[in-house]
Amino acid sequence: MIWWIAVGIAGVLLVTIGLTWRRWAEATINLLRRRAGYVRHSIGVDGFELVYYETGPRDAPVMLLLHGFGGDADNWVMLAPLLREHYRIIIPDLPGFGDTGYLGGKSYSLDNQLARLKDFVDMLHLQHIHLVGNSLGGYFAAAFAAAHPERIASLALFNAAGVDMPTRSPFYEAALIGENWLLVRKPSDFDRILQLVYHKKPFVPGYLRDYLVAHRMLVSDDQDVVFHEIFTERIWLDSRLPQISAPTLILWGDDDRVLDISSIKLFQAGIPHAQTAILPACGHVPMLEKPDATARVYRQFLAGLTATAETQTVSESADHALADAKPQQELV
Question: Domains of the chain by range and CATH?
Fold first, then answer.
């Protein structure tokens, strides 16, 4: 991946100016965020200080990106620069994750997270949202689009959770016996996660790996509580999916070991108008593993929406013209 080469070079430069490994990692992450145009904000939602990032023109159509389990807004740091020219992109750290963090005594069930998401978009006065979710974020995105169809301009599900996959993945089989392969309890768990979520394990510079491992180990107990509640609850969306009326894209990496690609069949059954795209040689996080290909497919989907809207506008204009002409024809 070309961007990891850039990260490695940045690390070497940072070493030469004498920063500690932690400072190197933070500087590298901040460099990627600046490249994406991220501007940090926060807002109070249900007792959480919900942290979110914005990039793109303030007056552009709104795009809301939702990360998956164990992730945060940085999961979109490679995709956002490819989309921000024409969209106001908003990327929250969902409650329980990232800088928003975990609060004891709170429920992280589907409906509670949806209520927080609804409060968040209400507080920011967001309408006609292009909503995108990956994994757990796709679960929330699909459920939100079903519950609030009037707020959604389009929906994109990237390797989304929310249906009981016909072919069980290795991750799912492990979860059924109480193992959570997305937690980092020891350094080697981080390497296992990379092998799990990517088709081809990426190179991560040592200083950045150490930083990410330390952080993920620190939050592992809290995230296990979140995962246990969601996985035990396991509310499948099959009955809710038909309520999704927005144009929908279902995108999947063909080598997903977390949520098997067979899940597409159930999403298609529930959202029959959805378009489907499969990325070859790609795992569970297409926006990180193949950001260029993901952006290309997603932009084509969005361009199709624009073309359809323009066709409808032309058709409506023609209908109005015919309607205006009829009285004249009748008078002749």
Answer: 38-331 (3.40.50.1820)
